[in-house]
Amino acid sequence: MILINTDFPKELLHTTNKIYSGIHWSERKRIKNDFYWWVKSLNIKVCIDNTKSQALGIYFTFKKNAFDCDNCSFMGKMIIDSLVTIGIFKDDSPKYISSITYSSRKGSRNNLIFQIL
Fold first, then answer.
1. What is the C-alpha separation between 43 and 117, in angstroms, rounded?
2. Which residues contact 25 (CB under 8 A, 6 or more apart)?
3. Residues linked to residue 116 through DSSP beta bridges, in sequence order
């Protein structure tokens, strides 16, 4: 089931390396809030079976240079945290999310596909 298939805003392109380089906590909080409001604006209306753990696929396409797959993990974390906050998932613990698969490639636009496998 695909939850999200949409253009990905350029302003939300943040690598995991950028976060690990030591940006200020207030900047991380601002980025987290930006992700929350973007995910909320997508108006996702689905009913997830929260009685079993879900496997997720997060697929990024980048207009310019594709990020390394592991460099997409921060953006994936922000999206999942936002989906928890708006009530799509009950929690992001292993009880509810068993695995996450990332994909990253170059394409004609910045795009995100978020899927329950």
1. 21
2. none
3. 56
| Amino acid, res. 37 | W
CB burial of residue 107 (10 Å; 0-12, 13-18, 19+): exposed
Spatial neighbors of 111 by CB under 8 A, at least 6 apart, are 5, 6, 7, 8, 60, 61
SS3 115: strand
Domain boundaries, given as residue ranges, for the chain: 2-116
Residues pairing with 7 in the sheet: 111
CA distance 81 to 32: 9
Q: Which amino acid is present at 9?
A: P
Q: Which CATH architecture has domain 2-116?
A: 2-Layer Sandwich (3.30)
**Per-residue tens of pLDDT for the chain, all 117 residues:** 888 999 999 999 999 999 999 999 999 999 999 999 999 999 998 888 889 999 999 999 999 999 999 999 999 999 999 999 999 999 999 999 999 999 999 999 999 999 998
Cβ atoms of residues 102 and 55 within 8 Å: no
